[in-house]
Known about the structure:
- The protein has 329 residues and is of the alpha/beta class.
- 34% of the residues lie in helices and 22% in strands.
- The strands form 2 sheets. A 9-stranded mixed β-sheet has the order 5-4-1-8-9-10-11-12-13, sandwiched between helices.
- Belongs to the carbohydrate kinase PfkB family.
Amino acid sequence: MTSSTFDKGLIVSFGEMLIDFVPTESGVSLSESQGFLKSPGGAPANVAIAVSRLGGRAAFVGKLGDDEFGHMLAGILRKNGVADQGINFDKGARTALAFVTLRSDGEREFMFYRNPSADMLLRPDELNLELIRSAKVFHYGSISLITEPCRSAHMKAMEVAKEAGALLSYDPNLREPLWPSSEEARTQIMSIWDKADVIKVSDVELEFLTGNKTIDDETAMSLWHPNLKLLLVTLGEKGCRYYTKGFHGSVETFHVDAVDTTGAGDSFVGALLNQIVDDQSVFEEEERLRIVLRFANACGAITTTKKGAIPALPSDCEALSFLKGQVEA
Length: 329
C-alpha cells in the first residue's frame, strides 16, 4: 500500500462473500452446462475489491466458512489489497455457493447453496467495531438483512458507522430467491432506507420496490428521503440517472460487447465511492458529479467484457485508458 493510498479515506464494505460457479458456455441452463468456472463474488466483497483496484483504501467485514473456499476468499481479498481485520470464520457452516446461469445476452439467473451459510451467522459481538468506526464510507446491501443473527450484526455495524460520522452507502442488490417472499424482501429492504446517505438501485429494483413499471423521474423520486444526498438508478446499457437535493439528470454509458454482467453494478459503486470518499462536495456540483458518474459508468462497462466479477474489475489505468479511447473514437 503506497503512502498516497494510506492517506485516502477508508471504505468499509459489509456483507456476504461467496463463490459463484459460472458456466463455461453462455445461453444454456444449469442442467445443460458442461462445466463451471469457480469465481469469487458477493456484492459487498466485489465493491471492496473494486475500490482497492482503483487505488482506494478498502476493508471487508463479514463471515466465511472455516473451509478451503472460505480461506481462499480471504486470500483473494488480501491479494487485492483489501484489509481483512473484519473477517470472521465459522467452524460449523460452509462458505456460500451460487450457481449462475449466463443467458445469451449476458444477463444472469442464480441458484444458491446457503442453508445456512457462514455469512448468515455473523453475530453483533463478532464485529470489529474499531475498524467500522474508522470508515469514512460504510457500504452494505440487503442480503445481510434476511436472517438472524446477521441482521442484528448489520444493524449494529450501520449504527456504529453512522455514530462515528461515516457516509452510509446502500445498494439493495435484490436476490429474490433468497427471501421467504417478495413482500418480506420489499419490507426489509425499505426498513433501513431512510438511514442511507447514498443509495444505488437498478431499474429492476426500482420497479420491484415501487411496483411501478414506468422507470421515470417521478417513480425514482418516490424513493427519495430527506436525509439522502444522492439517489442513483442504473439502467444497464442506457447508463444511469442521478438525483440530489438540488438537481437531477442522466449520464449515458459506453457500448461494449457484454459477455457477463456479473459485478458491473459493484464496479460502478466502487468507482463512485472511491471518487467521493474524500470529497463529498460533488453532491452540490452537478458537472463534477457527471464526471464521476461517467468514470463509474466506464468501470461498469469494462466489467461486462470478461467472465466473472472480480477478475473483470478494472484498475485506474484501465478505466482511464478506456475513457481516453472513447474520446478519441
